[in-house]
Write the structure tokens for this entry.
Amino acid sequence: MSLAKAYAAHSNTAPLVPFTFERRPVGAGDVRIEILYSGICHSDLHQARDDWGGAKYPMVPGHEIIGKVVEVGAEVTTLKVGDFAGVGCMVDSCRHCEACSHDLEQYCAEGATFTYNGTDRHTGETTQGGYSDHIVVEQRFVVKVSETLDLKAAAPLLCAGITTYSPLKHFKVGPGQKVGVIGLGGLGHMGVKFAKALGAQVVMITTTPEKGADATRLGADEVLVSRDPEQMKAHAGSFDFLLNTIPVGHDTNPYMGLLKRDATMCLVGVLTELDPPLTGVSVIFGRKHLTGSAIGGMAETQEMMDFCAEHGIVSDVEVINIQDVNEAWERMAKNDVRYRFVIDMASIKG
Amino acid sequence: MSLAKAYAAHSNTAPLVPFTFERRPVGAGDVRIEILYSGICHSDLHQARDDWGGAKYPMVPGHEIIGKVVEVGAEVTTLKVGDFAGVGCMVDSCRHCEACSHDLEQYCAEGATFTYNGTDRHTGETTQGGYSDHIVVEQRFVVKVSETLDLKAAAPLLCAGITTYSPLKHFKVGPGQKVGVIGLGGLGHMGVKFAKALGAQVVMITTTPEKGADATRLGADEVLVSRDPEQMKAHAGSFDFLLNTIPVGHDTNPYMGLLKRDATMCLVGVLTELDPPLTGVSVIFGRKHLTGSAIGGMAETQEMMDFCAEHGIVSDVEVINIQDVNEAWERMAKNDVRYRFVIDMASIKG
């Protein structure tokens, strides 16, 4: 056991406040990581506010974790003390189902164990996340992070990064393709960077014309303002793939109209109802696909971290101290961040 | 020009009544077909009632046509006088767009010309369908029909048949797969027959337990009553492919829960809103696909007719005289047909 300093929510209306709790002892397959940076994901807010139900308090959010390995169990082979390491949305899974055996732990038949607000398979206790000074995680769920990456800006790769990288890879985005990234936020700005690095022609699709210049800076070849019917018409039937990062229910029909025959739009942001509803016409005429994708498996997360090191890809971040986390959440709720807050966890020692 | 005897609707509330009009002259690439049988598709009713808008009257419905070639133009190479022939939902397209050049005329960039309530590309007049004694169609949009098939029962293959065959083939349904056909009507009963002939394990998914015995007779290996939560739970996550033939808006979420990871549900019946709406969760967790498919191209329609001749597949039909068409429509509206009405067009001469 080791005493952890953290910030936690104690109800769905309370602000985050300092909190101390015990981490589980380092088991034979575990590593203990001193957390250097912890990204703030929009789902942290959703879960702390219990927007999706099932919240357990006290809750220490955070699943975009970058840190340094400070202790390893006897059976750990993939990491050693001193390595830089990353932890994302999952810290465990059944490891034997069909999905786990295909390195798709995020689709584990028994349900993956989430980094916070989950149930620890070793202790039965509620898992606690990255707004904390350290964490203990089984080695399969820890990735190695190259020293060449800007570590604070690498934290969001563990969720925003893998969530966008995985579908772009799975659906084989590459050179010669016209790819649209819908929505320019924490996910969308990573989608643009990855789609560009994979060689596609990238169009940023946004409701906000003001974001255009920023999209170009991030690597977009073109900006399509979705509220402009003329622009939408000009791009109709022209996209090979759409990565839809919008985090709330919305009308997907106009976007389906942008796809070529047999092409796919992949949802990564919205969990709730697609309202107003999708129509049959939107998929039937052109045999179009609507699909979705959840984060990525651990092997693919490591692949992404290596891809980022190779291509010099990180998130655009604004670094804050843990003491300012409640204000950051308020600003995030208003989309007032370009594009991700990251907590410098050294501040928790102060 | 040739005078055609037919039955037509003259408004969205009027019954079908006898109607006489001129068919266009047989051009160099055209064939003239004496219609022997004309299937009654649910969309005939929708279009005559103007449920989808754009109805032009008088309207002669009918796009499941079986007949005999009685005249061919000078450039016709694929058919000869005396051949049995079929005409489906389309009678023309641009023939040069990307889709047409890939034998996918149904997705023609300029819009395929529908067999009725369309605009004839030769004459600019409204096209008139198969509730008629003959029709003139360009050879590319006419398929050959084997004499070995029961011709009256072959008529619905031209719409209900190809609409279900095409997605089963495109999404590679075959041996070793568990395939669900949702909805047991004109489309669904053909879906069961084709999925079985393609070697899949076929589960008929219906809200109506009484249809179970019939589904088994049609070839289903198993029946799943979708209103039974226990049965739905037992089949959760087990299907490789779902063919959804439900013709009206419905909740697709429970069906998405039946799919395996990365598997697809294909809509072929519903054009309108999927209400209550699909949720992001239904596609994101398991990277599942919702897609759709419209009829099939002409080359594939010919392939299907040949497949049917080889496997002895036809529709289950109830044959009526043209004079009874209004009563048949009323029964069809109440789903009181197993599974397709077909008009014996000899009755129009009487």
